[in-house]
Each structure stands twice: as C-alpha cells, then as structure tokens.
Amino acid sequence: MKTFTAFLLLLLMVTQSFGQMRYEKGYFINNDNKRIECLIKNREWQNNPTEFSYKIGNSGKSEVGDVNSVKEFGIDKYFKFVGADVKIDRSVNPKTSISTEKDPIWKQEKLFLKVLEEGKANLYVYEGTNLERFFYSVDGGKTINQLVYKEYRVDMTLVKNTTFRQQLWQDLKYADANMEVMKYMNYTAKDLVPYFKSYNRSFGESKPEIIPQERISYLNLKLTPGLNLSSGSMSIPGGAGKALIPVNFKSNQSLRVGLEAEWVFAYNKYKWALVFEPTFQSYKPEVGAQGAEINYSAIEFPIGLRYYYHLSDQTRLYLNGFYVPGFAMNFNSQIKYTPDTNVPKSLDVKSSGNLAIGGGVDYKKFSMEARYYTNRRLSDEPYLDPVYSRFSLIFGYKIFSTRQ
C-alpha cells in the first residue's frame, strides 16, 4: 500500500508539472484596443468566466485577464467572449422557484458575454448557476441589451413574460420574418441562433461562424493483461474453548487478464469515463498452518469512474476508482482447512464486494496502470474471515475505438 501511495503522489506531481499543456492558441484585446496573440488556458467553462489565464508564448509566465482589463478574448473559430457593461435580470429562476413579479429586476454589471452569432446583429449568452440570459446588439452598436423572458406566478397560475419576441420583431425584423413563427419561438439558443443567422444573411453581413469543436462521446475496448501481487489471511477454529488460530499466507504473484470497455464522455474535454472491466483473477498461495488453503479463480466485474488529465493530444494521465461487486464467475474456487478435530473441511467461495483505486498513463493505443484492491472477503462462514487483497500492475492495448 505504501508503494501505491507513493505512486499516486508521484502521478499528481507530474500532473502539476505538465499543467502548461492545457494552454491553446488564442488572443485578447486590451482596453487600448490592442490585439495580443497568446496562449489561453481553455477551461471549457460551463458558466461564463469572470477571468481567464493566459501566457505570452510557451515559456511565458501565467497571467490573468479579467473583465476590467480585457475587452475581448477567445480561441479563433472556437469561442469568443466580449466584456460588456449591461443590465441583467437575475431575479428568481423557474428551475428553483417562481417569482410573483412580471417585470425584470435589473442590475448593472460588467460581464464577459459569450458570442453566439455575429453580423449586422450580434447574439450573446450569459450562463451562471441556474441562470441563462441572452443579449443582443444591432448595427455594431455599443449598447447591448438583454432579451427579456421571465416566468412568474399570478395566484396559482404560471404566466410567461415573453417580451423578447417583441424586441426581436421591433429591432431585428427582416423581409422574410414571420410573425406566426415568432409566436412560438422559445428562449433558447436552438431557436434564437437561427433567427439571428437569417437576419444577418438577409442583409449580407453575416461574419464567419464561430464553430465550437463538436465533441461526441465514444467507446474504447482494451485488452488489459497484467501482474498481481496478492496476500491473504484467514482464521481457523481452534476447537471448543480454544482461541481462533490466525493464518497469514505468503504473498505470491499471478497473472491477470481483462477486457476493458471504456465509455469516454464528451463533457469537459473528454476528462471523464465510465469503465467496466471483466477480469480473470487467481490466487493460490502456499498451504498455511492447519492445512489452510485458498484456491480462488474467478472472473470479476469491476465498474468505476476514470478521470483523465491531458498532457498532449497523444498522452494522458489518469486516476480511477472501482467497485468490484461480490458477484463473480468462480472456477472451482475453494477454501480448505483442518481444524483441531483433524477432519479436513472445504468450503465453496462466496465473495463479497470490495473497492479498488488506481492511476496510470495512456499513450496512443498503450496504457500502464498501478491499482490497489482492498480486502475481498471470500466466505460468509462465521469466524473464518478469509480475505485477500492485491496490488496490480496492468498493461493495456486498445483494440477498438468508435472515436473518429
């Protein structure tokens, strides 16, 4: 266990030392309207940021830009945020509770707004915890206004303030705009972005699109052979009135082989994965005191979560944790011992669930991991308490992936 703890500490230290690999080529515009090329730490913000980290060149030191010092920043064709002094309605959100006030409650704030569409008219979004607000500007105007939508309660009836539809009809009406379509427009990016695109195209002033990189979850299959270093123990009944006899087995080595199915989530730059790894394990130490013997051969079915830390396009570090259910496919697994009665006894193995934690490195199709399994109880027989634990060194080879 000490070896494994040291390995995890080393892994975390290496992770910190390679933090700069997360920076991507971007730019920002300062308050003097000067565009500065830089490397931006792309955090794939779920909520609009208040600041961002950047470096001037790979060897530059990490610096911070915020809404007070930066007018705009982004990664070309991926995302763009603009700093804006706007009135925003942060009144109660319908996801948490319903307001009784029809009108927005305005608050003046300086924010980074994410650009969704640019041209004669620009569409922006601000996302916070349980909050989504859309903003717009027209004809390159400096004034950015919020599109108003609010759900509120009148007595026990839910009513919607859909002023944003009137705002669009008055300020962004174009030749092919349809009032009937407008009546059913929702306050979502899915409905608003196409409307702004149509408006801009009608005036021939649509700018090149900001196209977020499409991220799709994918499946990996790996062969995962490896080496186990296992240890175990149990207790032998000492007979009437006698204490239990503890038996500690010598550590031994054995081979393991598994087939890992890994579902990598697109969320947060492919950093999270669900892992299922049917694995053949075996443990047969030398016979101990009182003829004690454990013969365990089984296919286990661990399932767990994995977290990746990307060092480059080809190399990733990872940490994972597993739950190993008590259910296993046993192959004539038995526990044998000889109590003071000198009558040998044997029991079929009935394992219980246990946990495992590990960490490793993934490079192209190859991976290597160190993993520690907590004690796995092998019988529900009172007093015997047969358990075994193991430390595994696992090698992986990717044989299939749905990733493009």
Itemize the secondary structure elements and their pairings.
Elements: H1 2-17, E1 23-30, E2 35-41, E3 51-55, E4 63-66, E5 70-75, E6 79-89, E7 106-117, E8 121-128, E9 131-138, E10 145-146, E11 150-154, E12 157-161, H2 163-171, H3 179-183, H4 189-202, E13 218-223, E14 226-236, E15 245-264, H5 267-270, E16 272-276, E17 279-283, E18 293-300, E19 303-310, E20 315-324, E21 329-330, E22 334-337, E23 345-348, E24 354-363, E25 366-377, E26 387-401
Antiparallel strand pairs: 1-2, 1-5, 2-3, 3-4, 5-6, 6-7, 7-8, 8-9, 9-10, 11-12, 13-15, 13-26, 14-15, 14-26, 15-16, 15-17, 16-19, 17-18, 18-21, 18-22, 19-20, 20-24, 22-23, 24-25, 25-26
Features:
404 residues; mainly beta; 14-stranded antiparallel β-sheet; ten-stranded antiparallel β-sheet; 5 helices; 26 strands; 12% helix; elongated
